[in-house]
Amino acid sequence: MADPLDRRLIASTGKVAADHLRGVVEAETYVTPAAYRVAMVVTDLLSAPTGARDRQLVRGEIFHVVHKEMGMAFGYADRDGYVGWVDIGDVLSHPKQTPTHRVSAARTYAKSTPGLKIMGLVTPLPYGTRLVVLSEEDGWSRIAWDGGRITRDLYVPSGHLSAVDTIEPDAAAVAERLIGTPYLWGGNSSFGLDCSGLVQAAVHAAGLDCPGDSDLQEAAFEEATGPYQRGDLLFWKGHVAMVTDANTLIHANAHHMAVAYEPIAEAIARIAAQGDGPVTSHKRPTYGDAA
């Protein structure tokens, strides 16, 4: 089990804490977090107001704000409770509508005009982006692009979207959809992913809760028995990969600098040879229980 006082999961600055932490941590003030929604295509979740990137959030995700200072907001991600700081300008306090769809393709774009051959300004969108679809015609979804003061219509290829509550039947297929995505430490978008970001995206899509970092993921799932099965997770110290078949895994890794397939035996040998040790556990998320 994860440490309940892990700083990555405690919504407290030391002075200001979320109400649900009364009696758990000491703080000068306890507040009711306010639900904001990410407005930027991708924003970094930082360890401190001017700190390093821990994780990322994509447009449409909910971020619960506990405290604001110096143009930054401290709070936690709705998807997994991971805490940190974001630029206050990257989130909206009162989003006008709740997302209806999410980007289920590896990447897509929003365009200022509908139609395949009609020119228009293009905004790239990563996998998992949450959008409000207003209507659909001729293969294009008209979306409401909320910029805070102004909401305007943009258009996204409908085939790249799924209903926001869609549960994918195969977590490994989601990971495979992201093959070739560049490796990025702390990355949570299909513009850049790290090992735990890839696994979280795939496991979440299959309807299961999943923490944000590999050590938290390792603590969250039950040990597997028997041969490797599709969707199983293999852990090393500081690394995680997903099994695609009995002999192959997929992972975001710095060796390939991308999301890539690798034979399991070769990955185990290579990682050990570079000094990062053996596999520490073999876990099997209970995907069927999420259906």
Features:
SH3 type barrels, 3 domains, mainly beta, five-stranded antiparallel beta sheet
Describe the protein.
By secondary structure, the chain is mostly beta strands. It folds into 3 domains: 7-92, SH3 Domains (SH3 type barrels), CATH 2.30.30.40; 101-163, SH3 type barrels (Roll); 171-290, Alpha-Beta Complex (endopeptidase fold (from Nostoc punctiforme)). It is 12% helix and 38% strand. It has 4 helices and 23 strands. It has helices at 171-177, 195-205, 214-220, 264-273, and strands at residues 16-18, 29-31, 34-38, 42-46, 53-58, 62-69, 72-77, 83-87, 91-92, 101-103, 107-111, 122-126, 130-137, 140-146, 151-157, 161-163, 188-189, 192-193, 233-236, 239-245, 248-253, 258-263, 281-283. A 5-stranded antiparallel beta sheet has the order 8-7-6-3-9, with no helix packed on it. Strands 15-14-13-10-16 form a 5-stranded antiparallel beta sheet, with no helix packed on it. Strands 22-21-20-19-23 form a 5-stranded antiparallel beta sheet. Helix 1 (171-177) packs across helix 2. The protein is globular and about 55 Å long. It starts with 15 loop residues before the first strand and ends in an 8-residue tail after the last strand.
Summed up:
This protein is mainly beta.
Outline, from the CA principal axes? globular
Question: Within the largest sheet, what's the order of strands?
Answer: 8-7-6-3-9
User: Helix-strand pattern, N to C?
Assistant: EEEEEEEEEEEEEEEEHEEHHEEEEHE
Profile the largest sheet: 5 strands, antiparallel
Estimate what percentage of residues fall within beta strands: 35-45%
Radius of gyration, Cα only, in angstroms? 20 Å
What are the low-pLDDT stretches, counting only 5+ consecutive residues below 50? none
Give the overall pLDDT as a whole number.
94
What's the β-strand tally? Answer: 23
The CATH class of the largest domain is identified as Alpha Beta
User: Helix share of residues?
Assistant: 10-25%
